[in-house]
Every structure is written in structure tokens, then in C-alpha cells.
Amino acid sequence: MFIRAAFLSSLLLGAAAIAPVPSQAADILLGASVQLTGPVANTGRYYKDAYEFAVDKINEHGGVKVGNERRKLVLKIYDNQSDVSLSVRQYTQLVTQDKVNLLLGPFASNFVLADSAISEKYKIPMVQGGGASDQIFSRGFKYVFGTLPAASDYFGSTIKMLTQLKPKPENIALLYADDSFDVSVAKGTRPLLKEAGLKLTLDERYTTNATNFNSLLSQIRNAHIDAVLVAGHETEILNFVRQAKSLSVSPKMYSFTVGVPSADFRKALEDDANFAFGMTAWLPSASLKDKWFGDAESFAKTYKAKYGYEPDYHAASGVADVEALAQAIENAGTVDPEKVRDALAKLNFQSLYGTVAFGKNGQITLPQTVIQIQDEKVVPVYGKDGFIKPPKYPMPAWNSR
Amino acid sequence: MDLLIQVLINGVLLGGFYAIMALGLALVWGVLNIVNLAHGAFIMLGAYLSWYLYQYGGIDPFIGLPLNAVIMFAVGYAVQRGLLNLVVRAPMFNTLLITFGIEVVLTYLAQLAFSADFRTINPPYAGDNITVGSIVIPDVRLFAFGAAIVLTLAMWVFLLRTKLGRAIRATSQNLTAARLYGVEPRHLYATTFGIGIGLAGAAGALYGVISQVNPYIGASLTAKSFAISIIGGLDNPLGVIVGGLALGIIESLALLYVGATFGDVATFSVLVLVLIARPTGLLGRTA
Amino acid sequence: MRKLLAAVLLLLGVAILAAVPLVGSDVVVQFGINALLLAVLAQGWNIIGGYCGYPSFGNSTFFGLGCYGVAIALVQWDLPFAVGLAFGAGLAIAFAILLGIPVLRLKGHYFAIATLALALAMTAIVSNIEIAGRNIGLVLPPLNNDPLFYELSLGLLTVSTLTVFWLTRSRFGFGLIAIRENEEGAAVMGVNTTLYKILAFTLSGFFSALAGGIYAYWITFIDPTSAFDVGLNVKMIIMAVFGGTGTVLGPVLGAFLLSAISEVLSSEVTTTAGLFFGLVVVAAVVLMPRGLTDIFQHFHKAGWRYFLNNIRTHRV
What is the reported pTM? Predict the structure, then answer.
């Protein structure tokens, strides 16, 4: 009786194997597997919103010009529940079953690392704005393109700024989480600090999702650290700042790779977020003109009106991904994946995200602007041409704010 | 030297918080023999509860602790009476499975209800501290430490000296005899579990003030509470204080002297060692 | 005669399954690999948890060791896949023996908890090991041959199921069942309980490690969190329990069924797929703690009251 059941189930599996699969028609199908639930979902959902926003806007303008006709974009998004192996299976499903034309990426470097193996295997280009780690782009893959600039350069402009601050910071601490992106950031930051003649006194790798920064903060206070550079995740940095306050640790400045540009980070910390430095490859400035959205400033306004929160560089990067695909299709005159891939490699156009052009390894190059939270607002302080607005430095002690 | 003292104090205060965190789990485990793998998820719910009370009711998280505990008690009572009571006499391994399932369900429901955003409970005194020489002692953690001692002693007195406490212990030791004495076991089990969850709720309120809340904090909190309960020993209600302090200090020292990636290694290695060498824990009687 | 029919049916079943990559779409093959590997894990758990009665919450540790064995061999030492599998299996066997000896002394739920602690400790420890890529993990060289992985997984499942089948008719197997039912009595009767327990643990670990090795090469990327995932542990247990522990085909059936339902949900309703998993666990433990096989055997006698009886026996 039982054996019969086992036999039946293997029959079922076999039958499922030969079930026919319907195919798509004239719309251009873009597929993505994004973290909509699970621990990384609070950033993952920015990408879904951004992809949808961009696709709707482009369709509003009549769609994408392919040769002589205009075709609409259609999105298919799966929730990978913050599970890397599920996202790999979902990308396979998007390519082989849903027969998408082109791929958009997930959030987070470790996801992109695994998922880009699928785009490479099936030779379908993937444009992603969620992974910046050097590991992604050093494998010689030809089908993955990234709109986040290199992890190793994240603190570049911050370090340049540090050399021009008075009093110049003497002792620097570099703290970084032990995941692909943050380790890449640290690796790139060390030589930059050395070149700038800044002394790296404390260099500590910590566990991802750490909640206890008391020991590190005590060390920072004990070693009279002037500047703290932290490469980590929003929840860790939140804990770091709160614990710094409760232990009265206030170095002359601290800078974080994430959190500062995001509205809910600032909301969670309220005025404790003040004085924190960060960086962003994108600001909603009216000088960034865009074919579909007008400019970055109006994009930000309409985005906030629709979704209820201000877009940060994650959202802008997601929009840039869709625009890159659209522009590449128009340049190539076809949706053939090989030709689109070649068009992506040669791409160079202006968008609300800045200049979209990919390097030989597939990654974009964009300068990071140093930003600071002043009076609970994000203010750009240092760009590629030097100071933009005066930074509030040094940071006052916690009890005198 | 100053650094060492500061880190030790950090460890002790952390230990106090850890003790509160684990108290609910240890109570339910030690007395009812139910290993609640969803304990961390209930802490997470308690934290959200405090957040809502603070955000929309203006109720300070500390003043609202009793309210939080009472509401969470009701939740716990319902869960035990309605669900867990159904598997109490099954092999213990079944409760491990079912509470794991509850953890998954609670986490998903929390994500649906509260979204993946993280929240903080940020009363104005959240970052205050007392300075003694060059040593800094955060107020909230000092309070948590004090609360841990008070609650654990209260638990000890409750279980060993009050009628209800003795009835609970009797029921878990001998169900039939307890029934013969007129005790209603379903109600008692539910009450005990309710107390355990009420304590989890209180821990959640504190957690929200010290750290941040999102639907996914449950699993690691359960793992830590688990380690604390075993290291301290389940036979003695004071075990959580010993376990919490031991873990808080070991973790802080490991982070300082071995490396900032070795916190969990220290915690779980000690747990494995205790399980192998002295399974009844530091305060337990040797079996 | 019945036995012959059963054997033929099973052979046919295996043949059909083996033919899937020839006719099936890529997605089905991928789903198949996932389901087959989960079935191997469930079957491996069945040996120590189902037959021996020691519910291990640490089989994910063996799975992870298998993953890392293959990953390190391929990435760091440039050795072939087969060597990697052997390395992973070797690590698992060593681990099972070294840590099995102290941990198997613990009774009942303390054993479960100790193995859970081991799994938690492994994640933390491996995130600090340089050769394993620390917390970033390792990226394996891609091998675009899903049908190969599928057939390997099917082969592994067949071997593990045959092993369990052999268990049911061997002295070793009877010894395990004796340990499960009454360990002290078994010892008195001359069963070398320590040796048998360790053998069962090692065998269980061996299969889990091989499954891990195949998984790592297939998914081309592993890190400590995904390799030593405690949730995976519970998944394999619930699949074994759902199908019926202590039976030969129970875990296989449970694994296939639950995987199928989970996969369908993940692609149709996506967001609630995880919720479903939790609800299944809760429902299974309350209503059918002895699994599908037990339902098949008793349902026609007791009807729907079967489920109520389960509750009645176990509630307070």
C-alpha cells in the first residue's frame, strides 16, 4: 500500500516533467527575484518599488523602441524570502519557464554572486543595482552588469575629506562586518588610508548582525580614536550609534557605508542620527537630467508621492537598471540577449542616476559624495571638487548636544 | 586596566539583561519540560507591543512593563491552553518541533503585520548613563540588571514558597497525583507558560530600548536564551542569573581579547562543553 | 508474490525518476535535485532518529561539513569533485565519532539539545576559519550539468534507502530498534549500545555529508549560514516525521510531498510559502506525529477518529 504511494509520487514527478509550458508574445518580459520577506527585506523591497516605478514610467512614454515598433515592458518579480538558494532556483525558473527576455538583479552582493551564475549560464544579461563587491566582477563574467560603484572605493571621498579637516584626525578605526561587500570595502580602504597618511589604529572585523558593540566602543574610547569608519548593515549601525550614546563614546567623527541616506534609519534614531557621515553615489539633484523622468529631483518627488518614503540610492540604482536595459534595447534595435549584452557593454547615457556606463568588468564608476546628517536632514558636504557645504566637525559630546 | 574594567562591567550588565531574556524560557523548561523554541519570537512580539504602547499610547516602556507582561501572559496562556497542551504528553522532541513551527508562523505574521522595517523604542533617557571615574554605566542596562535580580528572586520565592508555585511543580512531576489532589493541570500548565511568556514580553520591552526590533530577531534570541538556561542549570531558578552573567562576561571578554567575530563562537562552544561535561548546568545537581 | 510486485514497482519508480532529466524542463530537474537531496537528508536522519530513537538536531552539521569538504577541495586545493566528496564524508565521519562519543551518552531530549548546540557552534566556528572563506563563504567553479547532479542525487537516495532497507533485516538494525525501545534492556541482552549508536550516527552523517557535497557543487556558492542552517535540520526531521519515521519509504514520501507543496507555493503565492511550512509543522505534530505511514495503516480502521485519538493520547 505504501509502496504504491511511493510509486505514484514518482509517476507524478515524471508527469510534471512533460507538462507543456506556454510562451510569451510581443511585450518585453523582465524578470527578477527580490527579497520581499526575510531579514534583508527592508532594503530588498526598495528594488521592487523601483523596478515597478521605472517600468510604469517607460510604458507611459509608449514603451521601448525596438527597431520600428514600440513594445511595452512587463515585470515578473518573485520573492526569494531572503534565501540565496531559492533565488537561484527562481532565476532559473524565470529564464527557462517564464521565458523572460532580460534579467534584473536582487539586493546584496552574496545574492548577486550566486544569481549571476544563472545569467552567465543561460547567457541572458542581468543588470543589477544591489551588489558592489569586487568578487562579483572579478570572475570574468560577461552577462552581469552593476550600477553600484566599486565597494573598494566607498570611503575614497571620505578619506580625501578627512585630510582637509581641522583638527586632522590622528587615530582612525576601521570596523567592518564579515560579509562579501564590507570585507571588500575594508580591503580597498586600507591602502587609501595609507596613501593619505592617516594612522589606522584599530582594524576590526565583526560578526554580521552583531548586536553587542560594547567591547569595540570601549576600545575606541580607550585608544582615543578620532575617526571611526564603519562598513556594515543598517541594523548593526543602529545598534552601534545607540550604544555609543549610552557609553558616552563620541569620536571627532564617524562615517557609515549604509543607513545615513535612508529615511527610516534617520527616523529610528531621531536626533541621535545627527553628525553622522555617510556617502551616496546619488543625490536627487535637478542637474541630473533623465529621458523619462525629467530630472532626479522630480523623480524623487513623484516617487515619494507614490510610495510614501523618499528614495535613496538603492531605489535610484534600481531605476537605473531598468533604464539601462531599455536604452540598450533601443541601441541594439532588438531584444536578442547577445546583442543587448553587447549594447550594455558599450552603453553611455545620462540618466537621473548620473552617467550610466559600465567598465570592462561590468561595473559602473561613480564618485561617492560625502553626506552628513545635520538637523535630521541629509546634507552633501564633500564631492569630487571639494567641499560643497561645511561639515559639522568635530562631533560634540553626547551630553552637550 | 581601565579598558578591562569597563569591559567587565559591560559584561556584567549584559549578563543581567541576558538573565531576564532567558528567565521565561528557563521557567517553562525547568518546570514544565517544554523547550520553547519560539521564545525569541515572543520576545520580539513583546518588543513590538511596547513600541505600539509607546508610539500610540505614550506609555513609557518601563512604566508600561507590567501592562506588557499582563498582555503577553494572556497570549501565552492562550497558546498553551489551545495548542501546546495538546502535545504535552508526547515525546519531548514533539514540543521542539511544534515550537519551531510556532516560531516560523509568528515571524511571518509579524512580517505581514509590521513589515520588515526596523523600529526602536527611544524614550529620552535611553542613552543616559552614570559616570564613575572613567567607567561609564548606561542607565537602562543598570535598570535591566536590577530587574533581573528582582524578577529571578521573585520567581524563586514563587516556585518554592507559594501554594501556586508548589502546585505547578507538583503537577509537572506527577500528573495523576496532582489531579487526585484537585489540581486542574490544563489551567496550571497554561498559567505557567503564560508567566514565561509574560517574562518574555518584559524582556522584549527592554530589548526595544537597548537595541532595535524587526520580525527576525527571534531566532538568535532563542539561541542565546537556550545557552543561558543550560549553562546556568534548569533545576535551580537562580540558574539564569549565573548563566546570564557567565555568558555576558565570556562574550564581552572574547570580543575584546580574541576578536570581534568570536562572540558566538565563545557562547556556543561553552554551551557544548557544558552539555558534554556537566549537562545539568553550573547550578544543577549532578544527575 | 507481493514482495516481487513491490520490488518491481519500486524499480519502475526509480527508472521513471531517472528518466525525468531526459523529458523534463530545467525547472523540474532543479526541483527534483532539491527534493531528492532533502529525501536523502530525511532518510539519513531516519537512521539515527527513527530507528535508533536518538532525535538529532545536528544533522545539518554533517550536511555543512560535506558542503565545505567539496568546496575547499575544489576551490582551495584544485582537487576533483570525487575527492571533495570523499573529503567531506571523511570530515563528517570523524566528527560523528569524535563528538558522537560524548554526546550520545546523553539521554532523550538532552541529546537533541546537544546536537542543536553543536549546529549553532559550527556556524560560528566556520565563520572564523580562513580556508573556508570565513563568513563570506566560497564560490565554486560552475558546472552546467543539472542532469548529472540529478542522477547523482537519485543514486544517493537509492543507496541510502537500500541501506535503511538492509537495516530492517540486519542484526545491526534490530539492535538499533532495541536501543530505541529500551536501551538498558538492550545492553543487558548483550547489544553493544555505544558502538551501535556511534555507527548509526556515523552512517547518518555519511549520507548527509554526501548530500551536502552534491548540493554545494550544484548551487556553486556556500557560506556558513546556508551550510549549517538549523532550519534545514527541522525541515528534514519534519519530512521524516510527516512520512513516517522508522519506516523505509516514509522519509522519501514525506520529502517529495512537502517539497512539492512548498515549491508550488513559492512560485504561486510566494510570500506565504514560509508561513505554510510553519503551519504544516504545527499541524503534523498535533494531528499525525507518527507520519503518513501510520495513517495508511490505521486510517481504514479508525477513520477520522485517528487524528482525534492522537490528540487524546498526547494532551494533558
Answer: 0.90
